[in-house]
Sequence to fold (611 residues):
Amino acid sequence: MTPLIEVTALTHTVQGRQLLRDVHLTLRRGELLAVLGRNGAGKSTLLRHLTGELGRRGVTVLGGPAHRPGTELARHRAALPQHTPAPFAFSVLDTVLLGRIPHGPRDTLHDRDVARACLDRVGLRGAAGRDIQTLSGGEQQRVHLARTLAQLHGTPGDRVLLLDEPTASLDLAHQHATLRLARDLCGEGVGVLAVLHDLNLAAQYADRVLLLSDGEVLTCAPPETALTSEHIRAAYGHDVLVTRHPCLSCPLIVSAG
Amino acid sequence: MERGLPLTRRGRAVRPGAALTLTVLTGLLVGAVVLAVGSGAVRISPAQVLSILLAPLGAGPLTPFDEQQAAVLWVIRLPRVLLGALVGAGLAVAGAALQGLFRNPLADPGLMGITSGAALAAALSVVLGLHALGTYSLPAAAFAGSLISTALVSLLAQDRGRVNVTTMLLAGIAINALCGAGTGLMTFLATDEQLRTITFWNLGSLGGATWPTVLSALPLILLGAFGLPLTARALNALTLGEHGAAHLGVPVTRVKWLIITLVALSVGAGVAVAGSIGFIGLVVPHLLRLLTGPNHATLLPASALLGATLLILADLLARTVAAPAEVPIGILTALLGAPFFLYLLRQTRRAESA
Fold:
C-alpha cells in the first residue's frame, strides 16, 4: 500500500539558505508522526509543503501533488495552523461549520450535528453559541481543532491531519487530551503528522519521531530509538537525561542543566 | 476531551435568523420606496401609488389620482428612488464583500481607488470639455475612471496572478493620492462654471435620475448585488486567512479576482450616475454585523437591502429638508453616517471591555 504522505529528496532554498535539505519522510495509515526540532529547524516549512502552500515536486499527499486545487483533497486532508485569525465575531458553531465547506454547497442539519459532535470531542460542546472572539487562545485553538475534525468527518478512504504545534497554548490536561484525541483518530485510520515542542508528549504519544536539525532529518524512528540524549543534544544543543517513564513504557526526558 | 472549561453566559452570540432578517429588511425597503415616491411637493398617498403603478396593467383605479400625480411618479420620483435603491445596494454589498476579502471591518470601496479614479475622470471630462456622449459624457468618463484606477490598484498588488490584499491597501492609498492630485490640478485649471459642476459631482446627487440612467446602471449593479452573495461561503472561509481558505479547497485567487471585478463594476456604475456617496459602504455592513452576525450568507444580501433603504431615505431627506433647494446627498450620508459610525465604535469597545 502506498503511504498517505511521501516526501522524497525535498530541498527548499530561500535566499541562498537551505531551509530543508534532502528530506525524506513517509506517513502511514493510522500513524502519529511527531516532527521535532529547534526553532528554525525547518518544521513549519516542511508542514507548508505538506499543506500545499509551497508547491514542489517530490511531495506526494494522498497519491498526488500536495498543492492540487479543489474540494476533493480538502475532504481528505485538513491542517491546523499555529494561529488562526478571528477578524469577525463568528459563533463557535459557525466556525466549526467552516470545516464542512468542502462537503457541499450549503450547511445542512447533518453538518450542524457533525459540528456539534466535533465540538464535543474537544470538550467545548457548551460553547457552541459563544462568540469566538471572547474565547481564550487555548479554547480558540480547540475550536479550530474541532473544525479540522469536521472537515475530515465522514470522508470515505484515506485521511490526513496536519497539526502545527496543536498544544502550544493549551494547559497540561488539554495538551494530553488533544494528543489522546489524535491517537483516537489514528485508531480510525487517519494519518496524523504533528509538529510538537514537548519532547515528552512526543515520547508518550507518537508512533515515530522525526527529528529535524538545520533542515536535515537527523533521525526518523520510534521514540525509544529517536529520542536519545545524543540525538537531542545534536538537535537542540542542550544536554538532557533520558530515563524510563516510571509508569508508562516510554522514554522520559529531563533537562540535565 | 470530556472536561470543558466552565463557560459563562457572557459573549453568547444569539442572533435573529437569516430568513427573519431578510424579510424584515425587504419590508423596510418596500416601505421606504412607498414613502419616498409619495413625498415631495406633489403628495401621493400609498393607495394612489399602487393605483398609478397598476393603471398600465388595465386595473381600474382603486383610489382616484390626477394626471399630474401619475406624471410626477413615473417621470421624476420612480426613476430617482429606484436609482437610489440601486446605488445604495451596490455600495453596501460591495463594502460588505470588501470587508470580508480584506478581513478588516474598516475596509471601504474607496480604498480600492474606485471613487478617486472616478472623480479624476469626471473632472477631466468637465475641464477638457469631452461631450462626445452628450449628457452621458460625465457618467461614462467616471465609470471608465473607476475601472482604470481599480485595475491599476489590483495590478500593482498582484504577483504572478495572486493579489496581496495588504499591498492592495497600500497601492490604493498611493493611487488615491495620485488621483487626488490630478483632480486638484483640474479644479485649479477649471473655470468657475466647471468648478461648480466638479464640486457638485463630488458631493453626490441622485437629482439626475432618468429612466435611461436607471437602466444603464441596473445590469451592472444587479450583477454585484446578486453575484457577490454567491461568494458568501468563500468569504466565510477567508476569515481563516488565505491559506486557511485554501486548505478548505476554496479557489482563493479566482474568488479574489471575481470579488474585485464585481465590486468595481457595481460601485463604478453607482459612482458614475450618482457621484461619490460616502459611508453607506462602511456603516451598513458594520451595523448589520452587530445585528445579525458576520456570516456572509446573510450579511451580503442584508447589506444590499439595507443599503438601498438607507440611500432612499437619505435622498428623501436631501430633497425635502430644505425644499425647494436640494442638499447634496453625499453631505447628508457623511453628516449622519460619521457620528453614527463613531457611536457604533464606542458601543463595540464598551461591549468588549464589559
Notes: Strands of chain B lie at 158-159, 162-163.
